[in-house]
Amino acid sequence: MASSLLFLTELMGMRVFDLKGRRIGRVRDACVSPRVDRIRIDQFLVGGEWNWWTVRHDQVSSISLDGIYLRDEQLVPYHDDVWMLRMVRDLLDQQIIDAKGRKVVRVNDVTFDLKRLNAHDELHVLEVDVGMRSIFRRLCQGIVPPRAVRRLMAGIAPNSIRWEFCNIIEPDPQRRLRLKIDMKALESMHPADLADIVEELSHEDREAVFESLDSEVAAEALSEVDDTKTQAAILESLDADRAADIVEEMSPDEAADVLAEMTEASSEAILDEMEAAEKTDVEELLEFDEDSAGGLMNSEYIAVPDTGTVADAMRIIRENEEQVDTLTTVFLTDGAGRLTGALPVGRLFLVDQTALVKPLAGEDEVVAVPVTERRKRVEELVDKYNLMTLPVVDETGVLVGAVTADDVISMLRQD
Amino acid sequence: MRLVERLPRPLIVFFTVIGPGFITAMVDNDAGGIYTYSQAGARFGYMLLWTLPPIALLLVITQEMNARMGAVTGKGLSDLIREEFGLRATFGLMTLLVVANLTNVMANFAGVASALELFRVSKYVSVPLAAAAVWFLVVKGTYHSVEKIFLFACVTYIAYIVAAVLISPDWEASALASVRPVIRWDPLYLTLIVGLVGTSVAPWMQFYLQAAVVEKGVTVKEYAESRIEVIVGCIVMVVVAFFIIVACAAAIWQKGPRDITSAADAALALRPFGEYAYLLFCAGLLNASLFAASILPLSTAYSVCEGLGFESGVNKRFREAPVFYWLYTGLIVIGAAVVLIPGFPLVRMILLSQVVNGVLLPLVLVFTLRLVNNANLMHEWTNSRFYNAVAWIAVFILIAMTVVLVGSSVREMFFPGPA
């Protein structure tokens, strides 16, 4: 054979011959055993006259478009396949995630690399095919001879995804373990891309993705899902302790929004499973009306005593390391926790470590809103004063949280 | 939701009830539907009103299964067909769907043309404008703004109810006729019954409704509300049909039964009863045509791309989802262009549409029934045995009726009789 490629459409229905050249059946499916080898076709399932036989890869002598010739005909009837990924049943026509192209695709065909090793032929999974060319192959399969199909399809641009970038989604956790399916490739994606992918999946597949992702990645991706209703539906489909792991990793304001969207019973169940500290944060936020400053704010912020020095401020920032990615403003509070000032974090670098923070904040009165302030007003203030962070205070002026500009952008986008 | 919260309470209730199921049912009363109802009223008066309750039942049975599948699986109908029945079946079905829906789009642009011609707007102005508006509405708007416009469009169907009331028809006769089945062995009468059913239960609805339920993110938990919505939608659709039939019965049939040539013809016949009845009927026709002309191409493009695995979605760029946009644009452009071609055999295309729909409907229904009973997909949400019995009977009736409809359409396409 000129080319060393073979397509699943060609393999399906291919005739299988024994040592004496007698036909024993046709190929019905091909399996990979991911625990043994992720890419080699380990077994061929051959439909005989009465039942299906299992042909192990080492029993094959040669494979070509003319058929599969065996070198060992001691075949076992096909039965259990819990450790097998079956190409036709589990992959063909199903949706998978293309980790490189960052999208959900539907499998039209599979391309194998036909390799001659130790005087026998092996198939290695090379690519999963999507797009027009593979659709054409599928439509011609069994009607037009394979060699003619290969000539005709040359005019259509191929569209394939390398096997190592393919993420199969398996809803059954046990099978996921047996087939060594994980979501490692997805974890390196940007959370926003991951969220887009998740939004395209069905309920079961979403659940599968969120069950196997690392909690931190899952939390980031969940925060990026557009609609709170969808976020709540995803969390509700998970076990309460798994959902709690994810919620703990989310910022408290987002966590509170999602929990507020759920039924009382589901959110209680998740809160019960959470660590005490995160639970308190979230529960405090849940008290507020969703559409007030209290409901919008985040309880993660950096507050420094207004009598302190730059060194003190730096120390407090270091202690709250997890916030530095989004930190823009440092708040100053008096002995009673009342908000007295705000300064952009960059100003801390302009002066000596021993300088006091108070003068850095300037003389202007700090813009803040009470927890009961309406959403509309919060948006207006952020816009008017070009704020990155708007502090929220309770009725006695004590700082209780902050609304960040990205929260405001999300709200505006939802309108 | 935020906009909704600011509205007065009765409106909130209205907007929370209506959604995918309601929109689907409303789009079902498109230009073709209005023509068929008008024809039924003009030719046979109140006599055919009894078919409406059974039609509502058939609609509810077929629609409910798709809404349920969408809520349980989170997948569209073409996705499920592809996953369970393979690429070839999907490809065949999608080809038929494109052809059927293309002819439906043509019929609706023709509806736009004739509704606006009554207002003395040339079709060479109205149709290109309508096509451009439809295209931009969906491609440049967001799904939520589009849905709001569609929901508002649903309200304008009240136009038909008002139009019917203005004509002051015989309410007693129409109430009686709604519950008293009459079978006449008149070929025209029987064909019209089949036509009424055929225009009400259309294959594209199965795809559209399920996709819309998925898009809205309805889950099993909220499914109870969705089911109510589907049922309410089907009932309202039939109520609108009732008023169209009654209006035409009073305006045309009572003066002397005759055939009408188009929905616009029916509108003209209402003119003697007052300018308002006439205007409302026209406005209703225009709205229905525009509404269907926006939904059908979009729904088709989504179904095809999802089933065949092309990227789809109005939030994607043209370059990311070329097949989706080409298909969507092509359906609108071709659908609108043929209306402008002088001498284009539009009537024949509409007959063809009935044939293709007729071939498609049984296939879609059988696939739907097999999918909805697949426990791997539906878990405990498969049909009950009683429901299955009812559903199979409904499907059998629909198939029998479509066979008749296809037969008569084919005959008329090749041997046009003296109409």
Key features of this structure:
heterodimer; A: 415 residues; alpha+beta; SH3 type barrels; MgtE N-terminal fold; CBS-domain; 8-stranded mixed sheet; 4-stranded antiparallel sheet; 18 helices; B: 419 residues; Amino acid/polyamine transporter I; 19 helices; globular; disordered N terminus
Secondary structure elements and their pairing?
The complex is a heterodimer of chains A (415) and B (419).
Chain A: E1 5-7, H1 8-11, E2 15-17, E3 23-32, E4 41-47, E5 52-56, E6 60-64, E7 67-70, E8 76-77, E9 85-86, H2 87-91, E10 95-98, E11 103-106, E12 109-117, E13 120-129, H3 132-140, H4 146-153, E14 160-162, E15 166-168, H5 173-178, H6 184-187, H7 191-200, H8 203-212, H9 215-224, H10 228-237, H11 240-249, H12 252-261, H13 264-273, H14 276-286, H15 293-296, E16 303-305, H16 310-319, E17 329-333, E18 339-344, E19 369-370, H17 375-384, E20 389-393, E21 399-404, H18 405-414
Parallel strand pairs in A: 2-7, 16-17, 19-20
Antiparallel strand pairs in A: 1-12, 2-3, 3-4, 3-9, 4-5, 5-8, 6-7, 10-11, 10-15, 12-13, 13-14, 17-18, 20-21
Helix pairs in contact in A: 3-4, 7-9, 9-11, 10-12, 11-13, 12-14
Chain B: H1 2-5, H2 9-17, H3 20-28, H4 31-44, H5 52-73, H6 77-117, H7 123-140, H8 143-155, H9 158-167, H10 171-179, H11 187-200, H12 203-216, H13 223-251, H14 263-269, H15 275-308, H16 322-340, H17 346-372, H18 375-378, H19 385-414
Helix pairs in contact in B: 3-12, 3-13, 4-11, 4-13, 5-12, 5-13, 5-17, 6-7, 6-12, 6-15, 6-16, 6-17, 7-15, 7-16, 9-13, 9-15, 11-19, 12-15, 14-15, 15-16, 17-19
